[in-house]
Design a protein that fits this description.
Structural class of chain A: alpha/beta
Number of strands of chain B: 19
Oligomer: heterodimer
Helix content of chain A: 25-40%
Strand order of the largest sheet of chain B: 2-4-6-8-10-12-14-16-18
Helix content of chain B: 10-25%
Shape of chain B: globular
Order of helices and strands of chain B: HHHEEHEEEEEEEEEEEEEEEEEHHH
Shape of chain A: globular
Number of strands of chain A: 12
Strand order of the largest sheet of chain A: 6-9-10-3-11-12
Bound molecules: adenosine-5'-triphosphate, magnesium ion
Largest sheet of chain A: 6 strands, mixed
Order of helices and strands of chain A: EEEHEEHEEHHHEHEHEHEEHH
Chain lengths: ~250, ~375
């Protein structure tokens, strides 16, 4: 599904991703952990084509295509979804119309007819239940004035509607209270299918007790320095990242 | 400075000059006693007016609205200025063509009235709106002529009266200007929402005086500037009695070499305690040569008041475009959505469906022309 090979990416003359390789197969859940500033969000931005980042080395194959040749919206239509660490507020744009627009953009690309406001209202009310969100959030402007946790739920709501092939969840657990964490994690689990893949970026192994990963990667200074099973998450929770940082720089 | 190509001997030419002079010097935004008590008739004095012009006024008000001769007003309002007036007779929905020289429209009653002014010669139209105690009057104003025009609207609101004015200006006249002089008695409510999609010069001068307690004023404007269009919005809201509220929101989207200026003064008199006022000017500048000038001002002489003001200048937000793209929306659609979202906040304030539709269409065409260029 996704093959990242020796990726090098920079922003404003600063190399952030430095020789990163990662392969995610259909249906797998990969957790990515690592210290602040190690480049996790940068990786998610590069995967979704943020215009401020430039790639000057390596390759990314997605579903047999050269991902780096695709525009951000083409990647989305091809099934990549990013739940933002910091979801963007869009004043004046109605949340429900926004999600419908995204939904219809995908349908249009597949040659299907667009769904009207009435039919979409039914569809989304089902999805709202999944994240236990109030209808009220649909009539507000996109993320505007939403609390941190509400923004995260709104991201998962979009994911539920858009049904991606590869979902990248960047710190979906940060800012969530204990109940919200459980709700969001359960929603993600319900969306797990044999061919839908997830990259779950997190600092806390608690999330991984809900969303159980197949592989855990540790990212330090723009590279994956160690990969392992679930127990790796527990290990870094206990020992921190120092031992891996030392090991990485010794290489 | 651009020189107006207009017959300088005409009244309209003088008005335009005056308007421009006011714009240049900022005379209307100064809190000086001098101008505050200046007779507004310099704007409306029809004795100088010699041209006659014809235009249809479409009257779609409810029956309880009368639009009639100025001289019928009991205080000889018309006589005072020597107006020679024509009665707008007929049924609501009728289109009446007025030959307009030394003439004025007087609107009273309650309900809705739609005034479509399609001038064929430079016009200068005084409109007097009087809303009696407890009444609600809604006026929609559109000019469709291709010549310059100036409308001077004086609004008198009695206690508990409500007046809503929608003004959508989208024609290609060289100058379309309107001046409002609003006087509000206690607990009255005045709301004005305007959309300027003019290709020439648009000037809105709005002066509001809250003379009674707890009056409320809401002013919302949207300017769409393209090519060499110029838009000026000058407001002057005077809180002269306690407990008043005023909200001003002025938004501009500017491309080409267009210019937009917001100059707004909020004056709070010493006795106007508990005044709550806000002024916000938001500009979205989409080209290198477009300019927005923003001058919100406060002049406060009471101590227990809440007054907020602010101005923003921005371009389209790259992170917002990217966010929409990650949801499958292409950049052109993303930009259109963001700009429409910006405009909608103001368009939504229009209270007449047919006008809202015109405004939305104007906004749509405006953004379409941007994305093409
Ligand atoms: N515009 C920029 N210019 C220069 N450096 C930047 C810019 N944006 C991000 N960086 C740097 O890139 C590095 C990686 O940031 P990134 O957000 O990817 O980290 P992260 O692993 O997601 O961290 P966290 O766990 O705190 O979310 C950081 O050192 C950050 O300061
Ligand atoms: Mg991050």
């Amino acid at each position: 599904m996704l093959q990242i090979n020796n990726l090098i990416a920079q922003i404003e003359d600063q190399t952030i991703i430095n020789g990163l390789s990662l392969t995610i197969n259909p249906g797998e859940v990969h957790a990515i952990m690592g210290p602040n500033g190690s480049g996790k969000s940068t990786l998610s931005k590069v995967l979704t084509g943020h215009p401020h980042y430039t790639v000057n080395g390596g390759s990314i194959q997605y579903d047999g295509q050269d991902l780096l040749e695709m525009d951000p919206e083409e990647r989305a239509i091809a099934g990549i979804f990013l739940a933002f660490q910091y979801p963007v507020e869009i004043p004046g744009v109605n949340n429900e119309s926004f999600i419908r627009m995204a939904y219809n953009a995908k349908r249009k690309a597949r040659g299907e007819s667009e769904v009207d406001a009435f039919d979409f209202a039914q569809l989304i009310s089902e999805k709202l239940k999944l994240v236990e969100m109030d209808e009220e959030f649909l009539s507000r402007s996109v993320n505007q004035g939403f609390s941190g946790g509400e923004k995260k739920r709104n991201e998962i709501l979009q994911m539920a509607v858009l049904e991606p092939k590869l979902a990248i969840l960047d710190e979906i657990d940060s800012g969530l209270d204990i109940d919200a964490l459980r709700i969001v994690a359960e929603a993600v689990n319900k969306l797990r299918t044999p061919d839908r893949s997830f990259a779950v970026i997190t600092h806390y192994q608690r999330l991984l007790t809900y969303i159980v990963p197949d592989v855990v990667h540790i990212m330090v200074e723009g590279r994956i320095v160690r990969s392992g099973g679930r127990e790796l998450a527990l290990e870094v929770e206990e020992r921190g990242y120092d031992w891996l940082t030392v090991a990485a720089s010794a290489e | 400075m651009t020189v107006m190509t207009m017959n300088s001997t005409s009244t309209l030419g003088k008005i335009a000059e005056l308007a421009r002079a006011q714009v240049e010097t900022g005379a209307l935004a100064q809190p000086s006693e001098e101008w505050r008590y200046t007779d507004s008739s310099i704007w409306v004095n029809p004795s100088e007016s010699s041209e006659s012009s014809e235009f249809p006024v479409q009257w779609t008000g409810t029956e309880s609205i009368t639009v009639r001769r100025a001289s019928e007003i009991s205080d000889d309002f018309g006589d005072q200025f020597g107006w020679n007036v024509t009665e707008l007779a007929g049924n609501p929905g009728a289109v009446t063509t007025l030959a307009f020289a030394n003439d004025a429209l007087i609107v009273t009653g309650h309900g809705r009235v739609y005034l479509a002014v399609a001038a064929t010669a430079p016009t200068h139209i005084p409109v007097v709106i009087r809303v009696a105690e407890g009444d609600r009057l809604e006026v929609s104003l559109v000019s469709t002529g291709a010549v310059a025009g100036h409308t001077c609207i004086s609004v008198h609101l009695a206690a508990n009266a409500e007046c809503v004015i929608n003004e959508v200006q989208t024609n290609s006249a060289p100058l379309v200007s309107s001046t409002y002089l609003v006087v509000q008695a206690s607990k009255s409510h005045f709301q004005w929402a305007g959309v300027d999609g003019l290709t020439g010069v648009g000037i809105r001068t709005i002066r509001v005086r809250q003379i009674g307690d707890e009056a409320k004023t809401v002013l919302t404007a949207l300017n769409l500037g393209a090519k060499k269009s110029e838009n000026y919005i000058h407001t002057h809201v005077e809180h002269l009695a306690p407990g008043g509220e005023s909200r001003q929101l002025v938004k501009s989207v500017l491309t080409g070499q267009s210019v937009s200026e917001f100059k707004g003064l909020v004056y709070v008199a010493p006795r106007a305690q508990k005044t709550d006022s806000s002024q916000s000017n938001q500009n979205m500048i989409l080209s290198e040569q477009a300019r927005a000038l923003s001058r919100p001002q406060l002049s406060i002489f009471a101590d227990d008041v809440k007054c907020a003001h602010g101005a923003t200048m921005s371009q389209l937000d790259a992170d917002q475009i990217y966010y929409l793209q990650t949801r499958g929306v292409n950049p052109a659609d993303a930009k259109a959505v963001l700009m429409t979202g910006f405009a909608d906040e103001a368009v939504d304030q229009l209270s007449m469906d047919s006008l809202t539709a015109i405004a939305r269409e104007t906004v749509r065409q405006f953004f379409e022309s941007i994305s093409e260029s």
